[in-house]
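Recall the central idea of this unit: under ordinary conditions, the amino acid sequence of a chain determines the structure it adopts. In this exercise we apply that idea directly, starting from the sequence alone.
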Amino acid sequence: MAERVLLADDHVIVRDGLKNLLLDECFEIAAEVSNGREAVESARKLHPDVAVLDISMPLLNGIDAAREIRAASPRTKSILLTMHNEEQYALEALRAGIKGYVLKTQAGVELVQAIRSILRGGFYLSPGISESVVNAALANNPVALNSLTQRERQVLQLIGEGKTNKEIALQLGMRVKTVESHRANLMKKLAVHETAGLVRHAIKIGLIQP
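Accordingly, the structure predicted from this sequence is:
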């Protein structure tokens, strides 16, 4: 039986290219989705063998989507596609339970290799990212991408996408006052005083694209 892959990327052209690549290698495409929320829901319903996630997706970024997929479908292994080759991003991804970290510029060459590697129980990091990253992540090295909690990152991403407090509350299933509290805490923690500063930080840590 062919291994089943969930593809999550908000760019149709990218998804089509990845789909054709994987079909040529005899993988089955379980689903194609365009944002992190859809990725989590599809994984919960379909339990694919592998989820291939873009790091910057609407509504929920790839790293936090991987965390939720891990809880919703423990058998599903996640691979992150990213433009970031800095070690701190790879550390954050591995701590989220991601088994493969593939640079988008190399996806056409490396994605199939990454999928096969993680299905055998291993990890895959694009060349150029130190293997010490894996050891540091597994050893719970305290160095992290940022000091934000998962919920704070989710709120920050939606702020960066231009959502209002009411829209964020509806999306995340919380009260508007709770969103306001998160917004205030984010400004304090990040030492910014306006929404534009929050948006800049969301771009800086890869939650949204400029």
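The chain is about 50% helix and 15% strand.
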